[in-house]
Amino acid sequence: MIKLFLPLCILFLMSGCKKSELEAVNSSPTVSADKAVEVAAYEVEAPTPPKEISQKLLPDVNQSAQPPITPKKIDTIAKKIIKNGNMKIQVGDIKKAQTQVGDILKKNNAYIQSEQFQNTDVDDNLDLVIRVPHKNFDALVNSFSDGVGSVLSKNISSDDVTEEYTDVSIKLANKKIYLEKYRDMLRSASTTKDMIEIQETIRELEDEIDLAEGRLRLIDDRVNYSTLNLSLYKEKVRSSATSKIGFGSRFADSVTQGWNSFMSFLLGIISLWPFLLIIPILIFLWRKWKSGRTKP
């Protein structure tokens, strides 16, 4: 009997343990589910990583889909070079040389800005101020050097005005911005005094803008068209009649020149006759005054 009772107790205890374990197992999913919900909610509410890190973690496809960020374009000013030159050429015939110069100018799309001719007893001079496109300047100078005559002097210079042009352009752009702001202020001005002050400022800005734009146009003109000062020179040859003058002729010329000088001097004195009349009057008055002082 005792042998049967002990195994039954052992079985009873084992069944009780298994039951408690089953209850623990059945109740554990509910607790773990709640904890899982809490963990899931915590994970959802967790802060997102920084932008830099998230961009690094994004795949290449997403990065390529975003539009590229291009830097703001900054306008650059090309170099501004002003070329000038001076040339003096001795020629045998001024008219023939002038025709040659005209042909060279047509070939290089140049033109004459000013022309001055001087005829003396010693030589003939034709001075030309020529404007030529910048790209044709060197070809023009070479053409004059080769086919017109003998070059007596030549001076070519280049002046880089890029810095000045850039400075004027920047100041001009800023002044235009200020001008628009002052015009907006003028529209919203409430008092007459403010309107007058703003209008005066606008007028000064407009004058400065006009000057700056004029300076830029002048620089562009000097850059686009170079300037060449060309002088055609012809020395006159003295004829035999004038080169072989004898002593007698020279003596007669000297006497004539002396007589002409004397006549000029005499006529100059005669032209002073009003002063010659005043002198005797002054002498008479002085003597009369002196005699009056000597009387007792």
UniProtKB/TrEMBL annotation:
<dbReference type="Pfam" id="PF14257">
    <property type="entry name" value="DUF4349"/>
</dbReference>
<feature type="domain" description="DUF4349">
    <location>
        <begin position="79"/>
        <end position="287"/>
    </location>
</feature>
<feature type="transmembrane region" description="Helical">
    <location>
        <begin position="262"/>
        <end position="286"/>
    </location>
</feature>
<protein>
    <recommendedName>
        <fullName>DUF4349 domain-containing protein</fullName>
    </recommendedName>
</protein>
<feature type="coiled-coil region">
    <location>
        <begin position="188"/>
        <end position="222"/>
    </location>
</feature>
<keyword id="KW-0472">Membrane</keyword>
<dbReference type="InterPro" id="IPR025645">
    <property type="entry name" value="DUF4349"/>
</dbReference>
<keyword id="KW-1133">Transmembrane helix</keyword>
<keyword id="KW-0812">Transmembrane</keyword>
<keyword id="KW-0175">Coiled coil</keyword>
